[in-house]
Design goal:
The chain has 86 residues and is α+β, with helices and mostly antiparallel strands. Helices cover 52% and strands 16% of the residues. A hairpin with a 2-residue loop joins strand 2 and strand 3.
Amino acid sequence: MDIGLTDARSALGDLAARAEYGGETVYLTRHGRRAAAVVSAGTAELLEQVEDLLDTTAVAEVQAKLAAGTEGRRRLVSAPPSQTAR
């Protein structure tokens, strides 16, 4: 379901209940574009666990490459401000 932010303000309780009890994902739109989503806490927690697993796997892969000598150490550099997400 998609709903504009203006309409979502007055229906937030209902939207939260749909996500929590109905398992529904509600997309909040701004100017017709999806800007955010309301999901159950369980869904958000699962997403965080998947992200953590992917991060852990990526770190393990780099560590294995470093140990094998197939990857050199790199200096971490932040993206320029114009390229960072808001």
